[in-house]
Amino acid sequence: MGPLSRRAFALAALTSLVTAPGAVALPGAGAPVRRPRGTTEMRGVWVATVANRDWPSQPGLPADEQCRELIAHLDRAVRDRLNTVILQVRPTADALWPSPYEPWSEFLAGTQGRDPGWDPLGTAVREAHARGLELHAWCNPYRIALDTDLDRLAPTHPAREHPDWVVAYGGKLYYNPGLPQVRAFVRRAMLDAVAKYPVDAVHFDDYFYPYPVAGQTFDDDEAYDRYGGDFGSRAAWRRDNINKLVQEMAAGIRRVRPGTRFGISPFGVWRNASTDPRGSDTQAGVQTYDDLCADTRRWVREHWIDYIVPQLYWNIGFAAADYAKLVDWWAAVAKGTRTRLYIGEALYKAGAAGQPSAWQDPVELSRHLTLAARRPQVRGHVFFAAKDVAADPIGAMARVVADHYERSAKPPR
């Protein structure tokens, strides 16, 4: 996985975790649990475009080659009896469709703002639907750039026109979530895709306030002084900013295209139980509630979103963040709510150098699905990511398909 991948940031945030021994044996691990015939389940794959992680394979390819590569990912999803493709269409405050708000993504033509000569999102929706796949439009709300040079952005980029909206942090540029005008703008920019295309869902990833960087401060003093007076702490104000974005985005989607869903894929630990008795039995170095100011538990319990896909990117038995314990915790959170629970799976770890021994076993991921199938609140899985589905170096995805995806399934609605 490349260092610029969104999941690389999440992994870097776990620097305090200690690798545990390999996966523990599960009762019945050799006999995969399958859902009854005729049921529905999420079988998804993320297609990351940031830094050309999954697609296009490199910037500047001819339009017809980009299109062929995209369709190959869709065909591969069909081959593996997946039913949902989550395509990153707004990776860095840019667009993979002709947007009146933001420039064309540099990951297409190689230069931000340059027309790639085709409409990737429109094509993706049409071709996915033709194959019986759902297409979820994946947006990163606040990330502007992977460096701190405003002058590298397209001349008409909103961040250059409104530098007061921008915060440099950790070697990157972000929109300031504490500014109401920023929240209104990013919502408008993302809803443009919903208005133009019959996407099945809008999908946010795990970046809200950025992951902590040691020795650095996210400079939102001016915004806090102006807008934070009604809150007992800066953290409470920041959480309210993110809560407002989530609620307003959900309302906007319902207004613009009724029936289109809204889902979020957060980092897998809301809070450790040592911090909050409602939290999970984990010792994670990052907690979304405290560090990213994302109250993911509340979004589920109050049904602000239609589905949640916590990134449970650890093996069964991992000491600091055990996959099995986290599945149980998230199932308990989702129980009795109308929010669908799917699990984000770290396919990219399977066979990767430097990963614990559990990830060198091609059966580890299949064990995840076997375990999760015993929790009725878990309605499916999403795999990170498309490049790894294609490569499948140790056959972990092939084992999942053989053990669990013998027949096609429709995604939950």
From TrEMBL:
<dbReference type="InterPro" id="IPR017853">
    <property type="entry name" value="GH"/>
</dbReference>
<dbReference type="GO" id="GO:0016787">
    <property type="term" value="F:hydrolase activity"/>
</dbReference>
<feature type="signal peptide">
    <location>
        <begin position="1"/>
        <end position="25"/>
    </location>
</feature>
<keyword id="KW-0732">Signal</keyword>
<feature type="domain" description="Glycosyl hydrolase-like 10">
    <location>
        <begin position="41"/>
        <end position="353"/>
    </location>
</feature>
<keyword id="KW-0378">Hydrolase</keyword>
<dbReference type="InterPro" id="IPR052177">
    <property type="entry name" value="Divisome_Glycosyl_Hydrolase"/>
</dbReference>
<protein>
    <submittedName>
        <fullName>Family 10 glycosylhydrolase</fullName>
    </submittedName>
</protein>
<dbReference type="Pfam" id="PF02638">
    <property type="entry name" value="GHL10"/>
</dbReference>
<dbReference type="InterPro" id="IPR003790">
    <property type="entry name" value="GHL10"/>
</dbReference>
